[in-house]
Amino acid sequence: MSKEIKSVEYGLEKIFEGAQDFLPLLGTDYVEFYVGNAKQAAHYYKTAFGFQSHAYAGLETGVKDRASYVLVQDKIRLVLTTPLTAESPLNEHIVKHGDGVKVVALWVEDARKSFEETVARGAKPYMEPTVEKDEFGEVVRAGIYTYGETVHMFVERKNYNGPFLPGYKEWKSDYNPAPVGLKYVDHMVGNVGWNEMNTWVKWYEDVMGFVNFLSFDDKQIHTEYSALMSKVMSNGNGRIKFPINEPAEGKKRSQIEEYLDFYGGAGVQHIAVATDDIIKTVSDMKARGVEFLSKPPHAYYQEVPARLGEHMGIMKEDIAILESLGIMVDADEEGYLLQIFTKPVEDRPTLFYEIIQRMGARGFGAGNFKALFESIEREQELRGTL
């Protein structure tokens, strides 16, 4: 890792001291996908990723235009929503983007204040503050648009004890495969168009009080054929991290360009989810049919001790086992991390997942970028989109 990256990455506390705290965020509340068939998508996430049935809204609960299935695993909540009629505006989103993330919901103490503060700073409103009630209490929600058609929903649930939100009922199922050890959302990555990254960096700074604590340019993120640029945004307490990518010039089409073409614009590229035991998690997911990117070459794993340096002495994992699973390793001054990336989870080469285990490290695997992107390029070549 270069000194330039280190100097940015390890000054987090100092940077966060200056972060504006007009928008305190408590964590990721839920991630909502618009999908073509929510019932089948829910079955996939239960079977392959170990999510559990949690809540449901649809015809049986009085909702006439859509059906939503809520899945949970530890602190992660996924909502899968599908339209029920041809007239539903959700159809336009699915036709244009395919299955994809529509809402990144943020847990807040005061949804009204969060909405008012961000709109006053230039956010485009998506949903005015709305109070939703049932026998379990009330939830206040409000939303703003971010890049593309993606939405940030502010969710205030301090006065609610129901299963998810008013209008949802508990979803009980006889089919609940065991969890695979996924714990929480570590970060979520957005892809934006050419020369749009800095625009959205400024938007997160001005509108949401985030800070840019880590930057990579095309000199650091490139292969023989393609390149991209990325800046990592974080809120003041560091609980919410949103890296933002844009394409850069290269000999061939980058993964970011491929995403933008198939998604039809800017959107969420991947969701990174944390685990405490990546070897067990990945082994379980592979056994359940989840497909991961191809493994780095053997030479990559021969270089792991040098990459870890002083942290090699505290590393608990067997490098041979990591190699057999294709799990990558990187280190920074704070510790090391282990990470692996799935292939896209739908037919369009758009959304995928990262599984990450942090052993003190706070970076994003900069030392793995070249190996990762070469693996993605091998998939692009098979698709004929490189």
Main attributes of the structure:
386 residues
How do the helices and strands line up, and which of them pair or pack?
Layout: H1 3-9, H2 12-17, E1 27-34, H3 38-49, E2 52-57, E3 66-73, E4 76-83, H4 90-97, E5 100-107, H5 111-120, E6 125-134, E7 137-145, E8 151-156, E9 169-170, E10 182-191, H6 197-208, E11 211-216, E12 227-234, E13 241-248, H7 255-263, E14 267-275, H8 278-287, H9 298-302, H10 304-308, H11 319-325, E15 328-332, E16 335-341, E17 352-359, H12 369-383
Parallel strand pairs: 1-4, 5-8, 10-13, 14-17
Antiparallel strand pairs: 1-5, 2-3, 2-9, 3-4, 6-7, 7-8, 10-14, 11-12, 12-13, 15-16, 16-17
What is the average per-residue confidence, as pLDDT, rounded to a whole number?
89
Number of strands: 17
What Rg is obtained from the alpha carbons, in whole angstroms? 20 Å
Query: Largest sheet, described in full?
Result: 9 strands, mixed
Strand arrangement within the widest β-sheet reads: 6-7-8-5-1-4-3-2-9
What is the oligomeric state here?
A: single chain
Class from secondary-structure proportions: alpha+beta
* SSE order: HHEHEEEHEHEEEEEHEEEHEHHHHEEEH
Which segments are poorly predicted (pLDDT under 50) over 5 or more consecutive residues? 1-12
The end-to-end distance, rounded to whole angstroms, is: 27 Å
Please report the number of helical segments.
12
Helix content, binned percent: 25-40%
Strand fraction band?
Answer: 25-35%
Q: Which shape, going by the Cα principal axes?
A: globular
